[in-house]
Design brief:
Blueprint: H1 3-21, E1 27-29, E2 34-36, H2 51-61, E3 68-74, E4 79-85, E5 89-91, E6 94-105, E7 108-119, E8 122-125
Antiparallel strand pairs: 1-2, 1-8, 3-4, 4-6, 5-6, 6-7, 7-8
């Protein structure tokens, strides 16, 4: 299997991680420690993320305005996560920050990144 094929194989996992992390039409609501899901169908791999994983993502966004990295492991699912959040910056939308999340399972890594802006106590993914 060549590298491109391997990356394509991880695409559903990357999409699932992004969906569960708040990308697309979802947002992280720090006040309720919950990732609010859209009505989109979740990929089977995406269901591997537990409520505890979602809470860690929620906590990462709420972790202060400076640059920081949050790492955690889901030992039940054998997945290691790293989330890097850039410092908060001001925009017309309000406070925003760029982020990157990486999931490692079975020695395979997938990364995704985006920009989220704070709105009404939660962080909405805008890019």
């Amino acid at each position: 299997m060549d590298t491109l094929e391997w990356h394509r194989g991880l695409l559903p996992f990357a999409v699932a991680v992004l969906l569960l992390a708040g990308v697309s039409s979802m947002y992280v609501d720090a006040s309720t420690e919950t990732v609010i899901r859209s009505t989109q169908t979740e990929n089977r791999l995406g269901t591997l993320m537990t409520d505890a994983d979602r809470e860690r993502i929620d906590d990462a966004f709420a972790g202060g305005p400076g640059r920081h990295t949050v790492r955690w492991s889901n030992s039940d699912r054998d997945i290691d996560y790293t989330m890097i959040l850039a410092p908060v910056f001001k925009t017309a939308r309000g406070p925003c920050r760029e982020f990157e999340i990486e999931a490692k399972a079975d020695d395979r890594r997938t990364r995704a990144s985006g920009t989220a802006c704070e709105k009404q106590g939660g962080w909405r993914i805008v890019e």
